[in-house]
Specification:
This is Putrescine transport system ATP-binding protein. Keywords: ATP-binding, Cell membrane, Ion transport, Iron, Iron transport, Membrane, Nucleotide-binding, Transport. GO terms for molecular function: ATP binding. InterPro entries: AAA+_ATPase, ABC_SmlMolc_Importer, ABC_transporter-like_ATP-bd, ABC_transporter-like_CS, ABC_transpr_FbpC, P-loop_NTPase. Strand 7, helix 5 and strand 8 form a beta-alpha-beta unit. By secondary structure, this protein is of the alpha/beta class. The chain contains eight helices and ten strands. It has a single domain, classed as Rossmann fold, CATH 3.40.50.300. The chain starts with a strand and ends with a helix.
C-alpha cells in the first residue's frame, strides 16, 4: 500500500534522511527502531505531508501523494501526547471525525460504542480527558484515529510517556486492535522489546539510513538493533537464578 522510494531530506548542510526506500503492504505494521536524532520524526512528517522531501517519492496504492495536501492523504499521525479536545468527553472525542464527515447519528452511536468496547473504554465514555489516566487518554487517541479508517497510521513513540506497566498493557492492546482492524501502520520506537511486540515487519533507522529486514531472525541478528545483546542478558540472568 505504501511505497517510499529514495527519500532524502536535509536541513541546511545537515543530511537527515539518506535515500530511504521501503514497502509496506496493507494490514502490516512496520516497527522502526531508531535512537534520538536518527531522522524518524522527519520521515513521519514527510509521510504525513507536514514536510517536503528534497528528492524521492511517496506512493500510496501506486499513486504519488507528494502533491496531495495533508488533510486529503487519509493519514493520521499520533504523537506521545494524545492531544485530545479538553472540552469534549471520551465519546465525543472519538466521534469527532465522523461528525465532521456528516455521518448520521445512529451510525456514529453504533461505531463509537463498538470502538470504545474494543479499546476497553465503554465505562469511560462520559468522562472528560482530565479524568483519565495516561493510558486511557492514549486509547481515546487511538479510537479517534481508527474510527475514520485512515489509509495509514503513523505513530511517533506513542507510549514513551507511560510507566512500564501501562506501556506493556498498551503494547498488547495495540497489537490486538491493529490485527482486528487490519491497520496499516508505521510505528517508530527506541525500545527493542516494543518493536518486537508491535511489529509484523521491522526496520532500523540510523543517521538517516533505513535498513529493512526479510524476517524477525534477520532483525534480531543485526548487532545494531541490540536485540541479541538483550536476549543474552536475560539468558544470563535466568542462568544465575537457577
Amino acid at each position: 500500500m505504501l511505497t517510499v522510494s529514495l527519500l532524502a531530506k536535509s536541513f541546511g548542510p545537515t543530511p537527515v534522511l539518506n535515500d530511504i526506500s521501503l514497502d509496506l503492504p496493507t494490514g502490516q505494521v512496520l516497527a522502526v527502531l531508531g535512537r534520538s536524532g536518527c531522522g524518524k520524526t522527519t520521515l513521519l512528517k514527510i509521510l504525513a505531508g507536514l514536510e517536503t522531501p528534497d528528492r524521492g517519492d511517496v506512493r500510496m496504492d501506486g499513486q504519488s501523494v507528494l502533491s496531495v495536501p495533508p488533510e486529503r492523504r487519509q493519514v493520521v499521525y499520533l504523537y506521545q501526547e494524545p492531544l485530545l479536545f479538553p472540552h469534549l468527553n471520551v465519546f465525543e472525542n472519538v466521534a469527532f471525525g465522523l461528525r465532521i464527515r456528516h455521518v448520521d447519528a445512529a451510525t456514529i452511536d453504533q461505531q463509537v460504542d463498538a470502538m470504545l468496547n474494543d479499546l476497553e473504554l465503554s465505562d469511560q465514555a462520559r468522562k472528560q480527558p482530565n479524568q483519565l489516566s495516561g493510558g486511557q487518554r492514549q486509547r481515546v487517541s487511538f479510537g479517534r484515529a481508527l474510527i475514520i479508517r485512515p489509509r495509514l497510521l503513523l505513530l511517533d513513540e506513542p507510549f514513551g510517556n507511560l510507566d512500564a506497566q501501562t506501556r506493556a498493557t498498551m503494547q498488547e492492546l495495540f497489537g490486538r486492535v491493529a490485527k482486528q482492524y487490519a491497520m496499516t501502520a508505521l510505528f517508530v520506537t527506541h525500545d527493542t522489546r516494543e518493536a518486537l511486540t508491535i511489529g509484523t515487519r521491522f526496520g532500523y533507522l540510523d543517521r538517516g539510513v533505513m535498513t529493512t529486514y526479510d524476517s524477525v531472525a534477520d532483525f534480531v541478528a543485526d548487532p545494531r538493533t541490540g536485540v541479541h545483546t538483550e536476549l543474552a542478558f536475560w539468558e544470563s540472568v535466568q542462568t544465575r537464578a537457577v
